[in-house]
C-alpha cells in the first residue's frame, strides 16, 4: 500500500502545481514555482536518486569548476598555487557542511545549496525505510 500512497501523493502534488500554474493571477503562478523546484529536486521528496545521484555530483562538479576558474582555495600551499585536488576537497567538504577553514562566498553558496538537496534526500530515504516496515 505504501507504493500506491506514494504515487497518490505525487499525483496530488502535481494537481496542486498545475492548478496554481493554470490559475489566472500572477500570484498563483508564482506560488507554483516552489512546487516545480521540489519536483525537479526530488520528485516531491519521494526520490533519493535525483538529489544524491544527479544533483549532488552536478552541483559539486560545477562548484569545483568555479573554484578552479576563479582561483579560490581555502587551504593554499605555501610554495605553490592551489591545485584542483584541494579545490575539489574544499568544494566537497563545504557541500556536506564540513568547511575546512574560513568560509568564503563560494563556500557559503555551496553550503546553502547542500541543505535542501541533502534534506530532500534524507526525507526520501526515511520514507523508503518506513515503507519497508
Structural features, described:
It is a single chain. This protein is mainly α and 133 residues long. It folds into two domains: 46 residues; 86 residues, no CATH class. 74% of the residues lie in helices and 0% in strands. Helix 3 crosses helix 4, helix 3 runs antiparallel to helix 5 and helix 4 packs across helix 5.
**Count of domains:** 2
- The dominant shape is elongated
The end-to-end span amounts to 12 Å
Helix segment tally: 5
Work out the helicity level: over 70%
> Helix/strand-derived class?
mainly alpha
List keywords for this structure.
2 domains, mainly alpha, 133 residues
Outline the fold blueprint:
Layout: H1 2-21, H2 26-42, H3 49-70, H4 84-95, H5 105-132
